Amino acid sequence: MDRNQDRRVKRTRQVIRDAFIALVGQKGFEAVTVQEITEAADIHRSTFYFHFQDKYDLLEQCNREMFQAFGEALAPPDCRPGEECRFNWHEGLVRHFEHIADNADYYKVMLGENGVPGVAKQLQRIIEDVFYRKLVFLNQADRAPMETPAEALSRFVAAAHLGLIAWWLESDLLYRPAHMARWLGELIEHGPLRSDGAIRGGAPGPVRV
Q: How many separate helices (H) and strands (E) can be counted in the chain?
């Protein structure tokens, strides 16, 4: 496939995806038809079926691509317990929120009232697995055993993390990614009650993990 053809394919798939996400946001996934997608995207049905088997295949591919990008944007560096590994909360989380802002149409729909069941749970699982479980694991070498099971801690913080993302989207991304990263970092480090008023401070510095 030459470069021009590859660009055309990507552009066509993006048009289909955008039309699909908009329709899901309006009426929910189950009510959306392929005919409506092709009309909204201004393409022939044959063009749609060249790229996707049906709307379920379209949804699966959209989710798979977005889940991968979501995890990659969030993942901290690869390190083993006992190694020196510098991770800056702020820089890592800014990248994460920038990804969400760049794909806000998808996340607004999937985390909204017409979102596809299971997507929010999968996003929370990604947050838990690629971020919090990893940080808990890396810190185990340098601290006493926790009374709270690591799995419970990871699940709790991941749920709060996703809740903050949903609030930001509901607020139409009123705040910049850097602000969201700073606030989430402070909530993670200090807890919700101790963070009362902490959002007036500076960004958290690098933490050793």
A: 10, 2
| Long-range contact pairs involving 167-172 (C-beta distance under 8 Å, separation at least 24) | 168/97, 168/100, 169/100, 169/104, 169/107, 169/108, 169/111, 169/112
| pLDDT at position 35 | 97
Taking the chain (209 residues) in runs of 10, the rounded mean pLDDT of each run is 76 96 96 97 96 97 95 75 58 90 97 93 92 64 63 86 96 95 85 51 44
Residues in the chain: 209
Q: Where does residue 102 fall: left (phi above 0), alpha (psi -120 to 50 degrees), or beta otherwise?
A: alpha
pTM attached to this predicted model? 0.80
Query: If you write DSSP's letter for every residue of 7-34 in order, what string do you get?
Result: HHHHHHHHHHHHHHHHHHHHH-GGG--H
